[in-house]
TrEMBL record:
Presence of the UniProt keyword Membrane in the record: yes
Annotated membrane topology: Single-pass membrane protein
Protein name, UniProt field: MICOS complex subunit MIC13
UniProt keyword annotations, A-Z: Membrane, Mitochondrion, Mitochondrion inner membrane, Transmembrane, Transmembrane helix
Provenance organism: Ameca splendens
Subcellular location: Mitochondrion inner membrane
Binding partners and assembly: Component of the mitochondrial contact site and cristae organizing system (MICOS) complex.
PANTHER family: MICOS COMPLEX SUBUNIT MIC13
Length: 113
C-alpha cells in the first residue's frame, strides 16, 4: 500500500513547491510589467545582504564574505534596447536581403566564368 502512495506524495510535494514558487513570483511582481520587475529587483537588493548576515551569524560562520557587487541594471532600459534592436533589424532586412542576393549572384557568375 505504501508503495502506491509514495509516488503520489512525491508528485504532490513537487506540485506544491512549484505552485508556491509561482505564487511568490506573482506576488512579488516578477511576472508583471517592467516597472514591477524593477521594484522587485530593488527589494531583493535591499533584503538579501541583511538576511545573509543573519544566517551567517546563526550558523556561526563569521568568515569574511565578499562585498556585494553593484548592479547597475535597469530592466526597463534593457527591454527598450532589445525592442529597438529588433525593430531596426526588421527594417534593415529588405536591404540586407537584396545585398546578400546580389553578392550571391555575383559569386555564382564568377564560378560560371
Amino acid at each position: 500500500m505504501a508503495a502506491r502512495i509514495w509516488p503520489l506524495v512525491k508528485l504532490a510535494t513537487k506540485v506544491t513547491i512549484a505552485g508556491g514558487a509561482v505564487y511568490v513570483a506573482c506576488d512579488s511582481g516578477l511576472l508583471g510589467n517592467s516597472e514591477q520587475g524593477s521594484e522587485a529587483l530593488e527589494k531583493a537588493k535591499a533584503a538579501v545582504p541583511p538576511a545573509l548576515e543573519e544566517w551567517m551569524k546563526y550558523f556561526g560562520l563569521e568568515a569574511q564574505r565578499p562585498t556585494m557587487p553593484r548592479i547597475e541594471f535597469s530592466p526597463v532600459n534593457s527591454w527598450n534596447a532589445g525592442v529597438r534592436w529588433t525593430i531596426s533589424s526588421l527594417s534593415d532586412a529588405p536591404t540586407r536581403v537584396s545585398e546578400y542576393t546580389s553578392q550571391g549572384l555575383q559569386y555564382i557568375k564568377d564560378l560560371v566564368k
